[in-house]
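## Example pair
The file below holds two records. Each record gives the amino-acid sequence first, followed by its structure token line.
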Amino acid sequence: MVDEPESLLPIANVGRIMKQILPPNAKISKEAKQTIQECATEFISFVTGEASERCHKENRKTVNGDDICWALSNLGFDNYAEAMARYLHKYREYERERNRINNNNNQTLATTSGDKKDDEDLHFRIEEQGVRQVETHQSVAPLEFQFIDKGKSSTSEPGGG
């Protein structure tokens, strides 16, 4: 096991993740948090070590998401690998969409802000040109994990159907 505190996952984050999956009134002991902290840290080290070895053999310096999926599968965690691959695909779609929106925002602002008038004039000129106003902080919805247990999501009521 890992002994150095700085090499462990932050205990507050571990506790927060544990609380998310348990009923609201559940209590978690410090010992339980520490045990999960050590196990999760060891698991992550185990998987990333396997992925890192693959990268080393392929003369690459950077471990990416595909390497982690491969390592999970190679170590016998096929269910995790499949779920991680699906999440990675969705994450990449999200990033592409976010970049597309940011690029569109930048192009719209660049083509309408020629003479540096104040924001109200810019807003007015955008409307005059028939261009829909695009907020500069527009983004797509963030990804969300849902824990699935025997066909029911964690958001369903316990014991309910």
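Second record, same layout:
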Amino acid sequence: MDIKFKLILNNINYSIILFNEELTIEFLNIAAQELTGYSDYFSYSNHLNANQFFHNNKYIIAKINEVMKTGEGFIDFDFEFYKNNRQNNKRSIIVEIAKINDDEKYYILISMKDITRFKEMDNIIKNEEKLQNFSRFIAEISHEIRNPLGGVKASASYLKKKIIEEHDSLPESLKELSQFTEIIVKEIDRINILIEDLLSLSKNHKINAEMLNVNKVINEIIEIETAVNSEKNIKFIKEFDPSLPEIFASEDALKQVFLNIIKNAIVAVQNKNKGFIRITTRIDAERNIPKFIKIIFSDNGVGISKKDFNKLFEPFFTTKEKGTGLGLAISQKIIFEHNGFINVKSVKNKGTDVIVYLPEGKNKKIAHPINHT
């Protein structure tokens, strides 16, 4: 291939892959090498073919053959590609296939554009909009629920007090009512706690922020959770970047988020023979304006099914027997308030990665990350 032509192709953002008539690779530009994990030299010298390159993906191979036969171009705006054939490295791709005729030869030209980050940001915005709509609804109905509950609790407490005071003069059938009034009071208290959690979703909190070291905050949580879960044979692995810059955040709020994520991971791995939870901190190399740090919580637990995945941040969605389904929704709101965002990657029966992104330094006013992809 002409050197000038190669130079041009190596300086565009689209991934370009050129196959010959035998569907072996003739050329991969730099963007394609970064996307796929294959080098141009490796692909060419090993005669890598389309089946190997696309990991025997029947759908895309059929489309390539169709373009070869008809000469008509093809485009797919949401093709799933797995880098290095790893299930936890799924990328969303716009893929275009074209047939190029050159005298008596022809080539198959494939261009691929990685839109994974755009899709992630789109999902984040949709989740944020859902949360805002839900928050408005909760704010409107919460007092309508609490007022009658207050009356019920006061009546139950008064009834319990009278039963205790007149215990000796009451018939046996009424003496037993005391324990039921106690249940009523406890259940109302539990409902009030739930309402408080719901209200925390509906309010925009004033963040009492300060410059803090994320490594230190996480380390304190790990020390406590290691002691509390000492009998569960769960291994906590810390991979902290010692040069991680400080961030401007509320320590209490971040502790609430990190603790919720870690507790979810503990539930996911607690029945595993060698369960582990790895917490990694590093600077996010992909986003430069503004700069973000990312905290990755990885576990080798039960993972999340495809059916449940899109509901993760919805209020009241839970797979736990005694869960309220508010933990991740509240966590997401807190991170939004810190001008950050959360991503989740999971493979059923293999594990989950929860990735928290937070702007480094004293970034008080930052546009939504969608503006910086």
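Notes on the second record: The domain at 3-114 is CATH 3.30.450.20 (Beta-Lactamase). The longest helix spans residues 116-165.
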